[in-house]
Amino acid sequence: MQGDQSGKSDGYEALEVATLGARLGGVGDVARRVGGDPAQWDVREVGDGNLNLVFIVTGETGSVVVKQALPYVRMVGESWPLPLYRAHFEYYALVRQAKRAPGVAPEVYYFDKAQALIVMEYLHPHVILRRKLIKGERVEGLGKVVGEFCARTAFRGSELSLSSPEKKADVGLFSGNVAIPAITESLVFTDPYYGAEMNHHTPELAETVAALRGNALLKAKAQRMLLKFTANTETMIHGDLHSGSIMATDDSVRVIDPEFSQYGPMAFDLGMAVANFLMAYFSQPAHRAPEALEAYQAWILEVIGECLNRFDDEFRRLWHTERSGILYPRALFEDQNQESDTACETLLLELRDDALAYCGIEMHRRVLSLAHNADFEEIEDTALRAKLETRNLKMGEELVVNPSAYRKAHALLALARAYHR
Amino acid sequence: MQGDQSGKSDGYEALEVATLGARLGGVGDVARRVGGDPAQWDVREVGDGNLNLVFIVTGETGSVVVKQALPYVRMVGESWPLPLYRAHFEYYALVRQAKRAPGVAPEVYYFDKAQALIVMEYLHPHVILRRKLIKGERVEGLGKVVGEFCARTAFRGSELSLSSPEKKADVGLFSGNVAIPAITESLVFTDPYYGAEMNHHTPELAETVAALRGNALLKAKAQRMLLKFTANTETMIHGDLHSGSIMATDDSVRVIDPEFSQYGPMAFDLGMAVANFLMAYFSQPAHRAPEALEAYQAWILEVIGECLNRFDDEFRRLWHTERSGILYPRALFEDQNQESDTACETLLLELRDDALAYCGIEMHRRVLSLAHNADFEEIEDTALRAKLETRNLKMGEELVVNPSAYRKAHALLALARAYHR
Fold first, then answer.
1. Fold of B127-420
2. What is the pTM of this model?
3. Phi and psi angles of residue A148, each rounded to the nearest 5 degrees, phi first
């Protein structure tokens, strides 16, 4: 697959609104779901992300989403080529997520490898969670679904559950994906901590940024976490589980866009999700009227606590009911009439420490590196933005350097409140 | 490559003493090195290992070693099939070791993939290090060569040094090897801690073994180390660096047999080597006359100290001179006029902790699992053997559970002396 690095594969052609019906109308699965005459399909390009073409296609029967990879980074342009094969890994990931955490990822209807094209479930009336968080809307079950999704994919994609031949074959398959992990490796773990070319940040942050970059202990720890990320195949991770990769209604939560999926650390997705909730929390004073602020921020903190606790609870449940891989086998514990709870709790504490360190790094990169969060970015008053971003950066620093002080969810939430004040 | 799992590939035929000259006489590189009429070559089968055919072939010009994988585990028989492709990984490993730690692995002259056959340098007058340790012979530079070999292969096979595309392609290549890591995973990390079918141990150890297997904390930590081993691609490791994989004269040290090579933890080889030195140390009272015992044991401890210190020193040297990968880039440290020594020392402490935990596990498996060490196994007096093995098992337990108490080499050596007394 490395052969695709240069861009287009044979016969690849980017979809267009005008030609989509003609190109996909002959695909039985797609035609049946959309219904009616393909020439009459309503096709809208809605890709507002950084990397791909995304269309919503509606016909007499229903709607589907068509997502096609472009051979370059959309937000930067053709000067930054990106291999089309990432769509293959997105497809592999969607299929595995459907099995490991049913009902959360969109259902896949059709996959065309050469066209780097996936036709999948149209989530409706779901909207991107980040928009809801900026608007101050609550989502029932948010922490629960995200926490359980992280626990289920972490556990069931690891050798706690999978057979070793199956898991190792999968690691081999995903090792063909080099370009996508390389983006995470530099953008997330390294670029925030020096003046990388594509970085940008709010001008008023200059002093705070200089202090962060002067903290050698912080940078050493961030790089230690990069080593854990880049040389770790514990489980298949989503790899980009921020609030733009979650769609929600008032009471339904779905996780989309696993094109950054790879085998990686069990705690990575959890840490990234929590980081994005924390950034929503810190940015609220710019988005809420004072009378609504406190209650909504309290709700976000509840979501974080719920997410962390559900992760642990679900991981414990799977530990006791689905531990069928080579790791921590029952032969060493239950079969010798010994409990394995201590082993599970010790592992969970390590996962929590890792999650919080990844969380802190994500809080930094979204303010200092290339791809920022709308939560902060849409705050036009840069002085206010910098003030809120500073709280976020400082809490992130504390989490990277000293995660084990915040193993209890209430300690983590108290830390967020302290920085907010 | 998984297709080879069942055993033989097309055209594979095991070599025999009588036919070896006819089969390899036509291979230019081999014929030139051996010299003379292949029909007159002196061919001796010397494989005393667990897995392969090994021949020494001598002619008018010189000698070579011919190593061929068998499609089953030699020490067990055809009932335990083992894929021939392990010879491919041994070849890949030898080539990479030659580049990363020149002059230590045997030079490769010829590789035949279909025959799972490698023709390589005949090491002479080298003998297996374990025999020398049992005989009480010293080897100048032993700790230095092993420590530096571990540091060089660890560093230069990681993303501290390699480019990410090169390293990740290599991880993909090695992910085809499932059967060999599976042996290590069960035999080393799990079997010692329950009554696995192929286990055996000295009868007088019953009580000690029951106590070990009753230590849930120990087992949890051993499994945590298994998770670190099985889901870790930090660097290409030798994978089986015991004193039977080292050949030596009085002043030359070479490392052979990397057929258990895989991408794994940077500290694994170091830990396994130190474990084997410690087992040589504990077994000495059965092999030495009392008047020679103390001095020889003191020498072994010196070797261990030298090995650990040389690992650190060489790792530090490479850190400062060859840090060209994505990890801990100079952009974050030196280019910002900040030292990176603290980051290096922190990483080295973590590597030391991991090495000592792997060391303790190796000390257990060699006494409790399938493949034992001659150091203990050749002690005919089982009461004495059990007494010495008990010291070894208890020190191993302490190292697995509490490695960071022995980060200083002198603390580790003091611990060995304390258990010996």
1. Aminoglycoside 3'-phosphotransferase; Chain: A, domain 2 (3.90.1200)
2. 0.95
3. -70, -35
